[in-house]
Structures are given as C-alpha cells and as structure tokens.
Specification:
Helices cover 33% and strands 17% of the residues. The chain is α/β, with parallel strands linked by helices. Strand 4, helix 5 and strand 5 form a beta-alpha-beta unit. The protein binds NADP nicotinamide-adenine-dinucleotide phosphate (NAP).
Length: 242
Amino acid sequence: MYKSFITIKKEIVMSQVHSNKSKVAVIGLGKIGKIVATNLVKGNRPVIVADRKPEKIKALSDTLGRLALPMEISAAIKEADIIVLAIWYDAIKELLKQYAVELQGKIIVDPSNPIAPDDKGGFVKTIGDNESAGQILAAILPKNAKLAKALGTLSADSLENAAFQKPEPAVLFYATDATGINAEIEDLIRDNGFEPIQVGGLDQSARIEVFGDLHEFGALGKTVTVSEAKGKLQPQQFYSVG
Ligand SMILES: NC(=O)c1ccc[n+]([C@@H]2O[C@H](COP(=O)([O-])OP(=O)(O)OC[C@H]3O[C@@H](n4cnc5c(N)ncnc54)[C@H](OP(=O)(O)O)[C@@H]3O)[C@@H](O)[C@H]2O)c1
C-alpha cells in the first residue's frame, strides 16, 4: 500500500525522536515564520509548519518540500518540543492563553518586538520604556513551559540573507531564565544558520528587542560576527561564546 505524502513527511519529522534534536514547530507563517522555517530546512532540520490559515500552511510546506510537515496549530504544539511563536507580541499573549494546556512543559521561543507604527512612518514601543516583551510573557507562561527570547534580533532581510554566512557566521543573541534548554536553543539557532550567544536571563530581553543595544534596529545597527559581538558584551556575558 502506498503511504500518503503527509504520512511520509510525518515519518521524517518523527525520525527526530531517534536523533538528539528536539522537534520544532513554527507557528505563524508571515515574514519571520517563513524565513525561520526556510532556514531550518536549509540547515537540514525537519520543521512543523503551522498557521491559522490552512492555505498558508500548505503553500509553505509544498515550497519547502519533504522536511516541512504541515499541521494545524493545536496538533503542531502537541507534536513539537520547541514552539517558535512567529506572531506579533499581542497575538502571542492571546495564544498563550488559548493553548495554555497544549503548551504546558514546552519550550517556547519568542522572537517578538513589542512595537507598532507611529504617525511619522516609524515605529514606537507599545509597552513601557523599561519593560520587555520577554519579561511580560514570562509572567503569563503556561505551566512548566520554558521561555527563550530568540530569533528576533535581526530584520527579516538579515535573518534571510545573513543565514549560513561564510567564512564567519552572523550572531543571533538569545536570553532565557530556564535551565537545561541552552543546547536546544543553540541547536535551533545554528540550524537557522547563525551562531548563538546568550546575553543572560530574561531580564536582558530589552537589549535584544527592537531599540535595544544588541538589536539590528537599535544601537547594534547591523549584523555582527562572534568576534564583533564580543566587543559589545561584558566578559561575564560570554555564556556561550567559545
Ligand atoms: N519583520 C521583521 O523584520 C521582524 C524582525 C524581528 C522580529 N520580528 C517579530 O516576529 C514576529 C512576526 O513578525 P512578521 O514580520 O513575520 O509578521 P507578519 O509578516 O505580519 O506575520 C505574522 C503572522 O502571524 C500570523 N498570526 C497572527 N495572529 C495569529 C494567531 N493568533 N495565531 C496564529 N497565527 C497568527 C499572521 O497570520 P494572518 O495571515 O492570519 O494574519 C501572520 O502570518 C513579530 O512578533 C515581530 O515583532 C519581526
């Protein structure tokens, strides 16, 4: 009997159970979600792709081929260990409530920047100057879920074009308070074609959100390599820099 395309794809993603890598799902297939899923496939990492619009799931899965498994959001969250929420900050808050049960115990990756267009053609922060999306989301996490602020420190263009850069990879900074998830977050970043650097706990989130000193649209102003990044961090912050 012939296996369906979805069954074959599911077997490929499920084969990760036998590898040392966690299963990852990208939820929200807009600019960032599509780029993250595409980078992962380029990095030979299977990925579950999910969105609230079935036609977007199918289109991306068809484009990316056998490593991209299409699923509805609820199923994707249940299936994956790492859930990348590639949606806007306010939508993340809603989704954490809506899928509070399914998200229990999962690793949640938040790339969000809490901003909205201003009336001058630019952007303005939608939370307090001293607040960060990372810290606010940490306070409303589903039970036993572990949050990492990651994959959001670059523009969509750089996330796409600087992936797998040679000879020196570009850096993606991340922050987390959770213990025991660093290897998984760093694998996720490396499989996206970047070198991970942890800047600290979630109290450092504002530094890697828009306008922060380590964001491309903040004082950083560009992508950086590891050697360039070292000059921007305090020595005690070289959590994961070799
Ligand atoms: N764009 C950038 O340069 C950039 C850089 C760094 C970080 N980020 C962050 O990355 C996140 C995504 O940004 P983006 O530029 O990719 O935005 P986008 O292109 O507008 O995509 C957002 C996606 O989220 C989907 N969505 C909205 N609400 C949802 C929900 N409740 N459940 C499931 N899917 C939902 C939207 O689907 P519909 O089609 O149904 O609306 C859309 O596909 C944001 O938090 C942003 O701050 C963006």
